[in-house]
Amino acid sequence: MKIAIASGKGGxxxxxxxxxxxxxxxxSCLIDCDVEEPNAALYLNPxxxxxxxxxxxxxxxxxxxxxxxxxxxRLCAFGAISVLPGSAAGKGTLLVFDHLCKSCGVCMGLCPxxxxxxxxxxxxxxxxxxxxxxxxxxGQLDIGEVAxxxxxxxxxxxxxxxxxxxxDAPPGTSCxxxxxxxxxxxxxxxxxPTPFGLNDLKLAVEAVxxxxxxxxxxxxxxMGDDEIIEQYCRAEGAEIAAKIPFNMEMARRSxxxxxxxxxxxxxxxxxxxxxxxxxxx
Length: 281
Fold this sequence. Notes:
Layout: E1 2-6, H1 14-24, E2 28-32, H2 41-44, E3 47-61, H3 71-75, E4 81-84, E5 93-96, H4 106-110, E6 116-131, E7 134-141, H5 148-158, E8 165-168, H6 175-181, E9 186-191, H7 195-210, E10 215-222, H8 227-236, E11 240-245, H9 248-255, H10 265-280
Parallel strand pairs: 1-8, 1-9, 2-7, 2-8, 9-10, 10-11
Antiparallel strand pairs: 3-6, 4-5, 6-7
């Protein structure tokens, strides 16, 4: 079973829920797909056993043969190529904007002069290993890179899956989040009982419904009066799977990099009950 932990915004406690679920489900796999800021390892302290560099092919101009016709630029749907035609003053110029390139290969495949070649460009790394709770994998996007979806796809391919896999998704509802939740059995949407939390929960619910993925809601930092979220969930027919209270001891423990489920029986029960519920969904 693959369970994605997601949220419409950052800071709701998504990673907190993910790592504690992985800890109470012994023998699980945790995949940290928040590749721009992976921090699940701070809580699970895994032993990384393998690091793989992730590279994407991008087009480069060969030494000669290009007529600077501009066909490659016109074919590129992402605006990653610009061609300045030659003139009497000299030959033309071809520019490739690597961060816009999606490595589709159309430009290289359809160039009439076969003047483009493939060059690999590093975008980040994928790390796999084990913690005392199960297998672990994470992606780390290189500084300045924007190809998070591509790295996430490689990360999900290289991860060592378990009977229960917990996937920590990037915050928000961007392409990176959609690539992460693609193919999961259940999405747990973590929110907080505030107007901002409600607004971004609505965006997340819309995203998972368009992806036809079953979901439930977890209210983090519950103060007891969560009507702002409960009213919305009732109207939408969304199940609230758990409420995690706003507790100073839990906040202190989490800020120190500790697992809440290891703080005490009461705190562990929140995640044990949540684990039982999501595995039955």
